[in-house]
TrEMBL record, chain A:
<dbReference type="InterPro" id="IPR009571">
    <property type="entry name" value="SUR7/Rim9-like_fungi"/>
</dbReference>
<protein>
    <submittedName>
        <fullName>LAME_0C04236g1_1</fullName>
    </submittedName>
</protein>
<keyword id="KW-0472">Membrane</keyword>
<keyword id="KW-0812">Transmembrane</keyword>
<feature type="transmembrane region" description="Helical">
    <location>
        <begin position="105"/>
        <end position="125"/>
    </location>
</feature>
<feature type="transmembrane region" description="Helical">
    <location>
        <begin position="171"/>
        <end position="190"/>
    </location>
</feature>
<feature type="transmembrane region" description="Helical">
    <location>
        <begin position="137"/>
        <end position="165"/>
    </location>
</feature>
<keyword id="KW-1133">Transmembrane helix</keyword>
<dbReference type="InterPro" id="IPR051380">
    <property type="entry name" value="pH-response_reg_palI/RIM9"/>
</dbReference>
UniProtKB/TrEMBL annotation, chain B:
<keyword id="KW-0812">Transmembrane</keyword>
<dbReference type="Pfam" id="PF08733">
    <property type="entry name" value="PalH"/>
</dbReference>
<comment type="similarity">
    <text>Belongs to the palH/RIM21 family.</text>
</comment>
<feature type="transmembrane region" description="Helical">
    <location>
        <begin position="289"/>
        <end position="315"/>
    </location>
</feature>
<dbReference type="InterPro" id="IPR014844">
    <property type="entry name" value="PalH"/>
</dbReference>
<feature type="transmembrane region" description="Helical">
    <location>
        <begin position="210"/>
        <end position="229"/>
    </location>
</feature>
<feature type="transmembrane region" description="Helical">
    <location>
        <begin position="177"/>
        <end position="198"/>
    </location>
</feature>
<feature type="transmembrane region" description="Helical">
    <location>
        <begin position="321"/>
        <end position="342"/>
    </location>
</feature>
<keyword id="KW-0472">Membrane</keyword>
Length: 241, 519
């Protein structure tokens, strides 16, 4: 049952990571994916492009007003392309947010990094080495908390910048957040189960070892005492493990 | 623009001719002062009083005998109130809506404070309930001061200018230092109360400890980050000429705002998860159903306001007042809900066969105690052996707890050197973490766990006398004259003939038990 749950967690995080990759590779990296389309402009995480001319800004965090042609590596200002250095003021982003706020889109790659690391952790949890490790499970649970936080934050940033023209890659982030949250909850459950199993194994043994001090003689002495008075001192009974 | 440090561009508005100079022409009779005679002016230019280039509502009483407004002013006013939402002319942006919202918030905060003082029990969470009372009281005081200040400012405007401006109230909301300071404290206290609530929902000690540490740290971080742009902006407004990194502040302000929304979404999802897994208790009686419904309403208030905010600037201008009420509500109502839920849960546990669940975390202490008892027992036995049999071997058992470090090597010369920096740093970090865990356990976790057991106790004096009576009854002090005499009796089993070692052992055990009962 636990191994099935671990596989399920891995599947959930895999889908979540894929959903997080799509917004990150949006405009100007992949021209067919965009976070929003507004007033003839297509917005992505690292820049924006004009619909009519297909000219994009160079990829960077925060939207710039300087455009580069798709073919050239150096920034080439094009006054007639629709993305010259004029300031669009309140008309640039759909939600009337100031252009400086677009720097908050940096949470997208951060969120992807955290989600990818979580995915690696969940893969590792399916291996034999970490399958029963409480420490690995605790690490994965703790890591999943900032992952959910950043994922939700990146969705909220998209909402703040692009509502009411938010495209499907933006909404995928909400799905990704829910998936990671569910995976995190299941991981908590698995951690509890593993912890309980380990404790029960320890309890069933019920042999307390005095590692540096117990000699063989003491053990034999104790077993002798048990035979003499087994019910008078029930706390000394060694149950077989 | 009221909110000068806003991360959004100001909404555009139309130009109104009455706010510019109106050319009235010649032949106007005017009396500048009651002591001066009336004069004839040839060329008059009239500018109507406008607020941020927008027409204002006049608060003057007008009758049939008074002079009518200028036609241009009337036209501009009609254009302003019938314009689209973006120019803030319609009724919902007027002073009435704003007055209604902040007085409603004031009344809600006041009611929640009364609820806290009436219903929230002092015991068993004395510290947490005091924190809740402090937070709600501060919120009420803050809103009382704000309402008084706003009314005073509106009265001043009415007397001096004959107008009622929304910007006066909104300016006060964003630039008042007292309001900002008290609001910072209220939100911090409410966030700490939310941490306490989440801690109560988790049963395991380790989880409680983690929730406490993470919750307190995140609450402090969010409040410090919130304070930076808010107080910088207020400082900037109060003392002109100071230079600030405007871009950084503009970026920080929405980031903290989103952070708060994220935390409230986390909080809402934790509560909803608990509502789902304890749905039987939540739907047990009418009162609990109502309480659960209000709880869900309160916890989703803040995310709902976020959605309203990104679509409507009106809410953004008043978000601080709404925030205060949302935080106080989500702390007070949810506290009451958790209180009631835990009482119901304990009632169910008391009636069930299995009783209260015990977790492995709690059992660790038991395991260590058992280990200690066993060690002590072995030590005792060892010393007995030492006295009866004076053999040299028995000394090895007597030294059972001697878990001393290995003796120092005599051939090794040791200098009184300071350990390397890495070790010292590691030691320091360990000390800090140990200290944090110690205080967490002592002041919060242990208090919660231990006091949970006496949850049903309401009055301290009653509780004490009841407990005293219970103990007296248990040890027989309530009936001192009733003396019972027990006689010993040998038990004879039919299966005595069967010479089975196990049966013999049982018999021996039973006789021992009987002998004990007889004593």
């Amino acid at each position: 049952m636990l191994s099935k749950l671990r596989l399920f967690i891995c599947a959930l995080t895999t889908i979540a990571v894929v959903f997080q990759v799509l917004p990150v590779i949006s405009m100007p990296l992949v021209t067919s994916i965009h976070l929003s389309r507004y007033n003839g402009r297509l917005f992505g995480v690292f820049g924006w492009c004009t619909v009519s001319t297909g000219v994009c800004t160079p990829p960077r965090i925060g939207y710039s007003m300087q455009c580069a042609t798709a073919g050239t590596s150096s920034a080439d200002v094009m006054a007639d392309s629709g993305c010259d250095s004029k300031d669009f003021a309140g008309d640039f982003l759909p939600s009337r947010a100031k252009r400086a706020i677009s720097k908050l889109l940096v949470v997208h790659p951060m969120s992807l990094f955290f989600a990818a690391t979580l995915w690696l952790m969940t893969v590792a949890l399916n291996t034999q080495k970490f399958a029963r490790s409480r420490r690995a499970l605790v690490c994965a649970v703790l890591w999943s908390l900032p992952t959910v936080f950043l994922s939700l934050l990146s969705f909220l940033v998209d909402v703040l910048l692009f509502i009411p023209f938010l495209a499907w890659p933006g909404w995928l982030l909400l799905v990704s957040t829910v998936l990671i949250a569910v995976a995190s909850c299941i991981m908590c459950g698995v951690r509890r189960s593993v912890s309980l199993q380990k404790y029960e194994r320890l309890r069933n043994k019920d042999v307390i070892e005095f590692f540096p001090m117990q000699s063989d003689k003491l053990q034999s002495e104790e077993s002798q005492t048990q035979q003499e008075l087994p019910l008078e001192r029930p706390d000394r009974v060694h149950r077989p493990g | 623009m009221v909110k000068t440090g806003s991360w959004r561009y100001d909404q555009g508005h139309d130009d109104y001719a009455s706010c510019e100079a109106l050319h009235l022409g010649s032949g106007i009779l005017l009396r500048a002062h009651k002591d001066n005679p009336i004069s004839l002016y040839n060329d008059i230019q009239f500018t109507s009083y406008c607020d941020d280039q927008r027409p204002l509502y006049s608060a003057l009483i007008r009758t049939a005998q008074t002079f009518p407004y200028l036609e241009q002013i009337q036209q501009d006013w009609k254009a302003f109130i019938s314009s689209p939402d973006s120019s803030r002319g319609p009724f919902k942006y007027s002073i009435y809506a704003i007055l209604l919202s902040f007085t409603a918030n004031f009344v809600i905060a006041l009611s929640l404070t009364v609820i806290v003082f009436i219903t929230v029990r002092q015991k068993p969470y004395r510290g947490a309930s005091n924190l809740l009372k402090l937070g709600s009281s501060l919120a009420s005081i803050n809103l009382t001061i704000f309402v008084a200040k706003a009314m005073s400012a509106l009265k001043e405007d009415h007397i001096n200018k004959g107008i009622v401006s929304t910007n006066v109230v909104l300016n006060l909301l964003w630039n008042d230092l007292t309001f900002a300071c008290l609001d910072l404290l209220v939100v911090l206290i409410c966030e700490l109360c939310q941490v306490q609530i989440v801690m109560r929902l988790f049963s395991r000690v380790r989880e409680k400890r983690f929730v406490f540490l993470a919750g307190v740290v995140l609450s402090l971080i969010s409040q410090v980050l919130w304070a930076i742009p808010s107080f910088t902006q207020i400082g900037k407004n109060h003392s002109m000429g100071l230079s600030y990194d405007t871009d950084g502040l503009i970026l920080l302000s929405p980031f903290v705002y989103l952070m708060r929304i994220t935390f409230s979404a986390f909080y809402a999802s934790i509560i909803c998860f608990n509502v789902f897994i304890k749905r039987n208790l939540c739907l047990q009686n009418q009162r609990m159903i109502l309480l659960t419904f209000i709880t869900i309403l309160m916890i989703f208030m803040q995310p709902a306001f976020f959605v309203a905010d990104v679509t409507n600037v009106w809410v953004d201008d008043l978000s601080e007042i709404f925030n205060t009420t949302c935080y106080v509500g989500s702390a007070v109502i949810v506290w009451e809900w958790v209180d009631y839920l835990l009482i119901l849960e304990r009632k169910v546990q008391a009636q069930s066969v299995l009783g209260r669940p015990v977790y492995e975390d709690d059992q660790q202490d038991y395991y260590f105690a058992k280990y200690a008892l066993k060690t002590q027992d072995n030590q005792f036995r060892g010393s007995n052996i030492n006295t009866t049999n004076s053999s040299s071997n028995s000394a090895t058992y007597a030294d059972i707890p001697a878990q001393v470090p290995p003796s120092m090597d005599n051939n090794k010369v040791e200098f009184n050197e300071r350990p390397p920096i890495k070790e010292r740093l590691l030691e320091g970090c360990t000390k800090i973490i140990d200290g944090m865990i110690y205080y967490t356990d002592h002041f919060i976790v242990k208090g919660l766990v231990i006091k949970t057991l006496s949850l049903h106790s309401k009055n301290s004096s009653d509780d004490y006398s009841k407990r005293k009576a219970k103990v007296r009854r248990r040890i027989g002090l309530d009936r001192p004259n009733e003396v019972y005499v027990y006689a010993t009796r040998d038990v004879v089993f039919d299966s005595e003939e069967e010479e089975h070692p196990r049966d013999e052992e049982e018999e021996a055990g039973n006789s021992v038990e009987d002998a004990r009962a007889g004593h």
